[in-house]
Amino acid sequence: MRRMEKAGLVGFGLVAGVALSLHFAALADKETLVSPLPIEELRAFTEVFGHIKNSYVEPVSDQKLFTEAINGMLNGLDPHSAYLDADAFKDLQVGTQGEFGGLGIEVGMEDGLVKVISPIEDTPAYLAGVKSGDLILKLDDALVKGMSLNDAVKRMRGKPGSKIVLTILRKNELKPLTITVVRAVIKVQSVKAKLAEPGYGFVRITQFQEHTGENLATALDKLVKENKGALSGLVLDLRNDPGGLLDGAVAVSAAFLAKDALVVYTEGRTEDAKMRLTASPEYYLRGSNKNDYIKNIPASIKSVPLVVLVNGGSASASEIVAGALQDHKRGVIMGTQTFGKGSVQTVLPLGNSTAIKLTTARYYTPGGRSIQAKGIVPDILADDPSTSASDNLFRLREADLEKHLANDKQPEEKTPNTVKSDSSTKSNTEKLPPTEYGSKNDYQLNQAFNLLKGMKILQGK
Hints:
- Keywords: Hydrolase, Protease, Serine protease.
- By secondary structure, the chain is α+β, with helices and mostly antiparallel strands.
- The protein has helices at 3-6, 39-55, 62-75, 86-95, 124-128, 149-156, 212-227, 246-256, 281-284, 317-327, 389-393, 443-460; strands at 14-15, 82-84, 99-102, 105-110, 113-119, 135-139, 142-143, 163-169, 177-182, 184-187, 191-197, 200-205, 233-237, 262-268, 275-278, 306-310, 332-335, 343-349, 355-364, 380-382, 417-419.
């Protein structure tokens, strides 16, 4: 088995229904116990186990006690390690194929409440008005306080067509909001593309899935044909992309980088956790797929002027792509600082249809920068005018998560240039409608196209 197939996952939360998608490790043949078991600690564990069995107010099954003990061990490590019961493990596997049931929101925990990291585009939650930063107080009539994240996610799953009422706390709202969401089988379109105007293309990646690389190759080929020749500029939009499959990130990077260029490397305690992934077919083709779709991309794409849009909702696989393109000076990164999810989660099956998701390594850009708790700082800062200053201030990032893994390098970052939006002069109380990515009113996209056109003028001179 290739090392990459043993490596980890690149998502940053759980999804209500479930969109967290990473690589799965098949490590059943690997020796997992590398040191003697701590006798004193095990003695204390069995004492507590015995007290609960004998004296708790109600009978408790052995299965529940052991499951909660495993949950506690993993939840105490960092925000991304977790125990996956049979349902969660199955949903995780299904989610990598871009189709799953539920609401379509990426979630984490904050102060005992479920916090919305990002609603996924075109899903029931997104269309119902759920927003990044929302705190979910109640699921139907059940208070979230006291639930584990897995329990909350289970409640949000359900039969397609069934309804769930979310009671939400939202910044700047005086009272809780109630939003009814109709569950659905969610099919996420990973790649969206269009010729915005003659010579200039727009490609948006909403999530890194099993076929993202192939879909991107098809979209880029179609853009060049529709333009009847090489593009003058291209915008790659990774805003609010929560991540996904690692080989998808390598494939997207390979579309724009020279063959065999380093995309990302990882460092961990075990040999399996140490990888160097390059823009080579062995690192982005999955399973038995031998069709190198990157070869079919028009040659002009390797040199087309490129702007990559990112924001605080760009995480994990998105940050890998942005970091690789930035370090190789292949494109200009524009937007706001990314989420900072730079750790590897490996899914380890336990043999009883359950698994654990364990943090096993950190990701580093080709230039040696650690993404963890730092993220990618854009070359040019460009705020979204529909996002208020207070919204940006209180937006959740990896560094805000309790027990987050520290950045082991914290490199000095050059202060980026800033593009100020027209909203900087507007009153804090004045609210603009949320941006529809890719629309004519998309301020950041328009700034990206302005930059590309300016670059073309300079090249002409």
